[in-house]
Design brief:
The complex is a heterodimer of chains A (112) and B (111). Chain A has 112 residues and is mostly beta strands. Helix content of chain A is 0%, strand content 58%. In chain A, strands 2, 4, 5, 6, 9, 10 and 11 form a seven-stranded mixed beta sheet that branches. In chain A, strands 1-3-8-7 form a four-stranded antiparallel beta sheet, with no helix packed on it. The radius of gyration of chain A is 13 Å and the shape is globular. The N and C termini of chain A lie far apart (33 Å). Chain B has no helices and eleven strands. In chain B, 0% of the residues lie in helices and 56% in strands. In chain B, the strands form two sheets. In chain B, strands 2, 4, 5, 9, 10 and 11 form a six-stranded mixed beta sheet that branches. The chains are: A mainly beta (112), B mainly beta (111). Chains A and B meet through strand 5 and strand 10 of A and strand 4, strand 5 and strand 9 of B.
Chain lengths: 112, 111
């Protein structure tokens, strides 16, 4: 079984809709991250969480919110989706000892 | 100027060639350096990591860090078609464990 899972894997939605992307991990890591990936721009950090009570904004948090429901679960919400949020979204985790991050398979989001 | 620069490619080589992938960076505080491999429609997979300067070898892969030049490299020996992917370099930005990624180099190994 995959250590980091993301649901859904693909999603098409309309402008203005609220959507949630979910991430679960079985690696036992405390730290979790949400990134988006756009062609030519690489991976950009949206939010990160070092434990259930510690959530921090990344470089591109506007238009997004997150919830850390448990050590193993970290959700990303788009409150009112817009077309320029069309991207590939990745969840990642890391342990406390190193900064090595392990990624999920990604969610491909299309906002019409 | 981006903190981490990486040539997007694509880089096309014949099977068996030695591949050199590179990144330059501007922040001298970076200490951890990583390479990720990403196949089409998949998540990035951690390939190798090094701490500070020096070389690290793992099978056909060698990661090299030159902190004096702010330059890191990934060498792939005896490249295979299965190595065709996008390779992302990443560096630890500070003690908070946030990684800074390059934009990725797309590699194509022709049979």
């Amino acid at each position: 079984d995959a250590d980091v899972t993301q649901t859904p894997r693909n999603r098409i939605t309309k402008t203005g809709k609220r959507i949630m992307l979910e991430c679960s991990q079985t690696k036992g890591h405390d730290r979790m991250y949400w990134y988006r990936q756009d062609p030519g721009l690489g991976l950009r950090l949206i939010y990160y969480s070092f434990d259930v009570k510690d959530i921090n904004k990344g470089e591109i948090s506007d238009g997004y919110s997150v919830s850390r429901q448990a050590q193993a679960k970290f959700s990303l919400s788009l409150e009112s989706a817009i077309p320029n949020q069309t991207a590939l979204y990745f969840c990642a985790t890391s342990g406390q000892e190193t900064g090595l991050q392990y990624f999920g398979p990604g969610t491909r989001l299309l906002v019409l | 100027q981006k903190e981490v620069e990486q040539d997007p490619g694509p880089l096309s080589v014949p099977e068996g060639a030695i591949v050199s992938l590179n990144c330059t960076y501007s922040n001298s505080a970076f200490q951890y350096f990583m390479w990720y491999r990403q196949y089409s429609r998949k998540g990035p997979e951690l390939l190798m990591y090094t701490y500070s300067s020096g070389n690290k070898e793992d099978g056909r892969f060698t990661a090299q860090v030159d902190k004096s030049s702010k330059y890191i490299s990934l060498f792939i020996r005896d490249s295979q078609p299965s190595d065709s992917a996008t390779y992302l370099c990443a560096m630890e930005g500070d003690s908070s464990y946030k990684l800074i990624f390059g934009s990725g180099t797309r590699l194509l190994v022709r049979p």
